[in-house]
Design goal:
- With 520 residues, this protein is mostly helical.
- The protein has helices at residues 2-13, 18-36, 42-51, 57-70, 74-84, 88-103, 107-160, 165-189, 205-232, 236-286, 290-294, 306-316, 322-333, 336-350, 355-423, 460-485, 491-519.
Length: 520
């Protein structure tokens, strides 16, 4: 009873969004289809389904507990769980399952049919999400251009004296809000799937190196930054230029390894369907086990999977436990798709399913997933390069306009000081002269302080506001491409490192360029 109550609490935590759990539901149905292909009993099927590390496993665990722990029938258990499920695709699936069991329909045929239906539904939802993602990435680019123009107009207006510096601060917070909404929208519309596999016993060497470098690098960069900024007594822009550069450079090594790992996993996933199909075909045609079929596969024709297959063979030769050998294979590949497909393949063949049929079903499943990911990758790669180019352009415009205003402000201060020194008390205007609207004469008739336009301004607050805007853009433009591409969360560090370097270079180069232009 405690286990049943615990499972019910876990069901309440499962998302109500069908897109969020769609990948796990499709994987579960594919797993059920390969188990029932061997004539496995219903109890064993649900027992094995409840052991999987999927979000939807809690539903099958609850059904299994209701039937075997409380003596409830499967049709009634499906109806009960369908009422507890929040996601519409799970609810409708279990209701159809209950109706199928009540009507006496073949369980194997029903599961295979539902797997095909769910595969098509998942593909349609995925493609729709990618299309929405493509539109929202375009909208995000337009938003960045708009907020940059707003900040430029605010800077010019502040220089003319028509707006106060507090307005620029308000606009900076507005930019933060707008970019946050844009990034969050991209996060919500992007397809939800798990790409990388991290076992409890460890992960890939590239991922370990990336995590270590990301944890160690930034503190070292911040320490060096503090020493340089304080020791050299750099001005505001130069100090932040050094800060951005050091933080970015400290993140790049870890970012390189995580990019390398992501590209390797992507390539492995593309080659996985061929390996699964070949393994099942050989084992089925020669009537041998999967271990024996592995020795008949030419690993050189398997591309990047070849070294992993060779190591798997080496571990299986001394008759080590097959489960641990396959788990080591999954951990070394670091691919969640490899984890799910090999688990389906090994479990189904060990439980009596035909290897050839299992290999075909699992291979089709893996092929559909890789094809869907290819469309998302195209959108993500285009958007990531566009974001980097736009970030460099926007930061350049903001810093360039800020430097022009600062230089113009300094010139105004010098000219105003010279005029005041030479005027010897200012210009006296006769009382019968009428001045244009907007121009007032201070007490005593002094015109020098009467113009409130193009006056000398204190640029300190404005400069800090622009730096805050650049920080906001750097962080936002690091998160948006990662949410678009998916994969490991460590990829944020790689985007952040590149954009920090870009921001640091622009902050260091633009002031020197502006100074040369005005000198010339």
């Amino acid at each position: 009873m405690n286990s049943t109550t615990s499972s019910l609490k876990q069901i309440n935590k499962v998302s109500s969004d069908s897109n969020v759990i769609g990948f796990d539901l499709l994987s579960h149905l594919t797993y059920m289809s390969v188990l029932t292909a061997g004539g496995l009993s219903r109890d064993r099927v649900f027992e094995y389904c409840s052991r999987q590390r999927y979000v939807t496993a809690v539903f099958f665990e609850y059904i299994y507990l209701l039937v075997n722990g409380m003596g409830m029938g499967y049709a009634q258990a499906f109806q009960l769980v369908s009422g507890k499920a929040k996601a519409s695709n799970v609810k409708s699936l279990f209701l159809r399952f209950a109706a199928s069991l009540s009507s006496g329909e073949s369980e194997r045929d029903f599961i295979i049919e539902e797997t095909n239906v769910e595969s098509k539904r998942y593909a349609n939802e995925y493609e729709r999400s990618v299309e929405n993602l493509r539109k929202w990435t375009d909208a995000y680019a337009a938003i960045l251009v708009s907020v940059t123009l707003i900040m430029v107009v605010s800077l010019v207006s502040a220089m003319m004296g028509s707006l106060s510096e507090h307005f620029i601060i308000i606009m900076a917070f507005t930019l933060f809000f707008i970019t946050s909404v844009g990034v969050y929208t991209i996060y919500k519309v992007a397809p939800v799937e798990t790409k990388i596999y991290t076992a409890s016993t460890g992960t890939t060497k590239e991922r370990r190196r990336a995590r270590t470098l990301i944890l160690v690098g930034p503190p070292i960069g911040i320490g060096i930054m503090a020493v340089l900024v304080i020791g050299l007594q750099l001005d505001l822009l130069a100090g932040f230029s050094v800060a951005f550069l050091l933080i970015g450079v400290s993140l790049l090594p870890g970012g390189y390894y995580i990019w390398k790992d992501d590209a390797r996993v992507t390539q492995l996933d593309l080659e996985l369907p061929t390996f699964i199909r070949s393994l099942g075909a050989i084992a089925g045609s020669t009537k041998v086990t999967l271990t024996q079929a592995l020795y008949k596969i030419d690993s050189r024709s398997m591309g990047s999977l070849g070294p992993h297959i060779e190591r798997l063979r080496t571990r299986l030769i001394p008759q080590l436990p097959p489960h641990e050998c396959w788990e080591m294979f999954r951990r070394e590949t670091g691919s969640e798709l490899a984890n799910r497909t090999t688990t389906m393949m090994v479990d189904a063949t060990q439980l009596g399913s035909q290897p050839g049929q299992v290999g075909q079903i699992v291979s089709d499943y893996a092929m559909s997933i890789t094809q869907l990911r290819a469309g998302r990758q195209l959108t993500a790669s285009t958007f990531s390069f566009l974001t980097m180019a736009m970030h460099a352009t926007m930061v350049f415009i903001l810093v360039f306009v800020l430097e022009i205003i600062d230089t113009f402000n300094s010139m105004l201060a010098v000219v105003s000081s010279e005029v005041l020194n030479e005027s010897a008390g200012g210009i006296e205007i006769p009382d019968n002269v009428q001045l244009p609207p907007g121009i007032s004469i201070p007490k005593g008739g002094d015109l020098a302080g009467g113009l409130d336009i193009f006056g000398s301004q204190d640029m300190t607050i404005t400069s800090y506001a622009i730096i805050m805007v650049i920080i906001i853009l750097t962080v936002a433009n690091s998160l948006a491409p990662k949410f678009t591409a998916g994969g490991s969360d460590l990829k944020i560090a790689s985007y952040l490192g590149i954009l920090c370097v870009i921001s640091g270079i622009v902050l260091g180069v633009v002031p020197m360029l502006t100074a040369k232009l005005f000198v010339a």
